[in-house]
Amino acid sequence: MPKCLSANSIGLKGVGYVGKGSVVSIDALTTTTLLNYGELTVSALRKLTFTNIGVFYLGVGPYLAMGLNGTLDYETPGSDTKDKLLFGKDNDVMKFDAGLYFTTGFEFRNRVTFNIGYALGLNNIASDPQRGSGTTVVKNREFLIGLGYRFR
Predict the structure, then answer these.
(1) In angstroms, how far is the first alpha carbon of the chain from the final one?
(2) By C-alpha distance, which of 55, 25, 72 is closest to 115?
(3) What digits encode the pLDDT tens for the residues 133-142?
(4) N or C: which end of the chain has fewer CB within 10 A?
(5) How far is CA 54 from CA 10, 67, 103, 117, in A?
(6) Cβ neighbours of residue 89 closer than 8 Å, sequence gap 6 or more
């Protein structure tokens, strides 16, 4: 049976360029929204070290994101139109997003890593025009799967 050691840590999970979006089809119109954010994630991690195998971890923490750019693509059977997405209260979506990030993963002794994560947006990013047209709440949700190699 492998020996197990545990540790806790709090730290910066990552700063990155993150793409989010949606595809909505109503009748013959398909609207594809692509949102690109600069995102900062901080996590409190609980690590369990299995000396013969590697390190298993669980984590939770907040994320903050700022909209950088995006596109809106409107497609019908006869046409396809792409527009630049605008961030702001009076535009397409709100510029700032915030929420909670949950993660779990494993780093093997050979430094191969596998992780999954879920981001739960808590901030309503619906702009005033969206709210006026009946879409009162828009929140980001994100599921992540990662496979990597840790360089030391």
Answers:
(1) 28
(2) 55
(3) 887 888 899 8
(4) C
(5) 20, 37, 17, 19
(6) 127, 128
